[in-house]
Amino acid sequence: MTSSRVRIRFSKHGKVRFTSHRDVARIWERALRRASVGVAYSAGFNPRPKIAFGLALSTGYSSDAEYLDVELDPDSEAGIDTENLVAALTASLPAGMTALAAAGLAGGEPSLQHAVTSCTWRIDAAGAGAMEASEALERALARSELLVQRERKGRLDTDDIRPAVLAAEVQGDITDGVRLIAELGTKPRAVRPPELLASLDPPLSILRAHRLHQWIATDGLQRREPLAVAELSVAGAGVAP
Amino acid sequence: MTNLWHRLEPLLPQVSKPARYIGGEHGMQTPVHGPGIVSWLLTYPDTYEIGLPNQGLQILYEILNERPDAAAERAYAPWVDLEAQMRAEGLPLFSVDTHRPAALFDVIAFNLSAELTYTNVLNCIDLAGVPVHSRLRHEADPLVGAGGHCTYNPEPLADFVDFVVLGDGEEAVGDITEVLRDWKTSGRSGGRSGVLRALARVPGVYVPSMYEPVYERGRLAAVEPRHPDVPAVVEKRTVADLADWPYPKRQLVPLTEVVHDRLNVEVFRGCTRGCRFCQAGMITRPVRERPAEQVRTMVSEGLRRTGYDEVALTSLSTADFSGIEQVVASTVDASGCGQVSVSLPSLRVDAFTVGIAAQIQRARRTGLTFAPEAGTWRMRQVINKLITEDDLYAAVESAYSQGWRRMKLYFLTGLPTETDEDTLGIAELARNCVALGRGHVRSPSVTVSVGGFVPKPFTPFQWFGQNTTVELRRKIGLLRDGVRRAKGVQLKWHDAAATLAEGLASRGDRRLGGVIEHVWRHGGTFQEWSEHFDLQRWQAAADACGIDIDSWVHRHRTFDEVLPWDHLSAGLHKDFLWQDWRDALDEVGLEDCRWTPCYDCGACTGYGIEHVVASAVPPAGGSQGTGMDTSRGAAVPVRLTERGLVGAAP
After folding, report:
1. pLDDT, tens digit (0-9, with 9 covering 90-100), for B85-125
2. Do A41 and B338 lie within an 8 Å CB cutoff?
3. Are residues B15 and B143 in the same domain?
4. Residues B290 and B192 in one domain
């Protein structure tokens, strides 16, 4: 089945994780052209390909759950076959970026930016062992608020991130620190892994962060990924780059 | 350790734009190192963003990697934040391809496109862990080489480089590879001096340590070969036919933003318009056009392979390419209207027509830049940029009539014989262009960019004493006043202090090496970047080395003065250049020899080569260097004027 919009899930590992969100957008524009995907363009003096990205991934972080939505040119969409598309895109992407899945989107599907409500992170941190970190995390989760300071336009703001820490646990020790798994909310703004670490007492410092999942809350406790990838063992893909 | 990635990786989260250090570009090669293979580290002595697009390095990267006896990787100057981390961690300069330490390469080869990068060259050598002075290097150290336009006066870097290549590098890198390969397989017989001696015999290769500068009364008297088998004059290399070199075939597509981030297809090399300030036009003669069919193939293949949505047809004056309209038209047709833009970065106004404008705007519209260079016809006769005001207005009107609202005009100030009237002529031209635009579009605008003129080696202006900083600033001040009330005119100008340092390096002799080293040792890297440039550092360095900046930069030279590059040759006869300098002072123009009989500048005759052009007549439109009345429309003058008559034209 063909659709005018296609959602693509991809991973970002290794050296290429040092590219920025803007770099990734440019990389995708070119990869789509190299793979001869007929992307729809905006009208006007400076036509732009109609590609929409989800939440930005900080420069330097890796991920198995990046997404983009591509609007296809109605004149060429008939030829899109999502299975071949995944292979063709991976061949066109730089080493370290892999297309994992692609699927047509239903007409009313909201944009990624709008729909995604939380992300699951694997966070490697320094500053404590597993035991100490577990206790710090427990204390943090037991509190009603977790205040972090952040600079915004030269002003220091204080935010309570506790409502956005949906789940967090210490997985264990690693060679240079400790590994945590945390699900952090993205509404009204995406809480970043270093903010969780900074809110702990004693605070931990970030070594690496890896996005395992993005989630869309459906109702109550139900949630789904933006692209169902049942065949993908995404959790198992959680090896260090 | 041959791969430094694991030491570099932990530093990257702490530096700006880490993507410039990761390599992984589309089109990156996988070089294989080994015995019997000569490894080259092609290095651009400025940031990745500036260096990656450099077409010269990309061409050599492919040519070398195609050879079974060579492997080439790339390096760029790390930005100051990473450099500080690297020095703290003891991490040396590395290639971005396989993160191989620079010192493991046989050759570290620099592209020299701008004099103000010289201190970065020293910094890169030092970061590589290689002695900065060539005389202090050991047999196991890499050879340090250089190519690019600045090597036509390599003397300021003579103490730091082992060899320099003059002219086109396509063939020379192969010859050098063979010398180095034989030397390596022979067990490095003759040592370092042996291989340098052998390199000095390769045509186009200059080995500074094989030459002795002689000074008399504080002035350079000669640069003489130390050995009988070393040529007294080193001649440049020129590839006879660009059709034999369809490179780059796999242009690198970076993962992060760089300048000129587009497909670049070189449509011709060399230019004989004869602009007297222009070093590129003098040293790259003759004109060698790429066959139109090859251009089309390189464009369509390149777009398909790279995924770029912009292609630039590059040369020193792209509108002069034979049949440019048809080539642009077929480029637009092939790439799909509206999604790919075509840019022509160097346009002469007398060859820019409504036809070209119409073709470009069928694709996605790009910026338009014209370079009248000077504000009055008198001044343009002096510099031999023979475009009339009518030429400019016709081109500007063509563009406005096709819907452009904005354009850029490039000018130079500080030119020989320039008067305040000439300077203010720039403001007048800009105002008139905006006024013309009002007839076609709403709120037209013109950005005027003014650079301070720096005399360059192997040009007729090589004898001219550069304007002082004070004088350049005064002229820019005049212009600022001149455009203050002009609606739609924006003025931008280069820092006159940087122009002074560039002038010093442009025509300095070997003694300038001390100044460059002093500036570098006192923290003066990235001198192309205004936030890092400080003239005080250069003045302090000149004082420390006993060099009188005024005499080196602002003094007019005489014909009998020995110039620091007299032992090098771009093919141009010195008396041709001198005659052209006299003609300049007499305000006499000189026509383009591509379409008229040869006047024996030496660039063709000396090397037994000639122009390769598809069309024997100038492109349509404008006065084509004649200064003739073009009010008849875009008709091409039937015949160009004879030498000496141009000045008398109306």
Report:
1. 999 999 999 999 999 999 999 999 999 999 999 999 999 99
2. yes
3. yes
4. no
Tell me, yes or no, whether A98 and A206 share the same domain. no
Is A165 among the domain residues?
A: yes
Q: Residues B285, B185: one domain?
A: no
Measured over the CA atoms of residue A66, residue A69, residue A73 and residue A77, the dihedral's sign is positive
Q: Give a yes or no: residue B205 inside a domain.
A: yes
* Residue in B21, B22, B306 closest to A30 by CB: B306
The helix (run of H) or strand (run of E) holding residue B581 is helix B574-585
Closest residue, chain A, to B97 (C-alpha):
A15
Q: What residue type is B23 in one-letter code?
A: G
A210 part of a folded domain = yes
pLDDT of residue B335: 66
Q: β-strands A62-71, A51-53: how paired?
A: antiparallel
Q: Do residues A216 and A152 share a domain?
A: yes
Number of independent structural domains in chain A: 2
Distance of CA B337 to the CA centre of its chain: 32
Which domain does A210 fall in, by range? 116-235
The answer to whether the Cβ–Cβ distance between A96 and B24 falls below 8 Å is yes
Please answer whether residues A234 and A64 qualify as being in contact, where contact means their C-beta atoms are separated by less than 8 angstroms.
yes
pLDDT in tens, A77-91: 555 677 789 999 999
* B264-292 pLDDT tens trace: 999 999 999 999 999 999 999 999 999 99
Q: HSE-up of B30 (CA within 13 Å, CB side)?
A: 1
Interface of B with A (CB under 8 A): 5, 12-13, 17-19, 21-26, 253, 255-257, 304-309, 338-339, 364-365
What CA–CA distance (Å, rounded) separates B213 from B184? Answer: 30
- What are phi and psi for residue B405, nearest 5 degrees? -110, -20
Residues A62 and A102 in one domain: yes
The full length of chain A comes to 241
Same domain, A98 and A184: no
Chain A positions touching B24 (Cβ under 8 A) are 15-16, 94-96
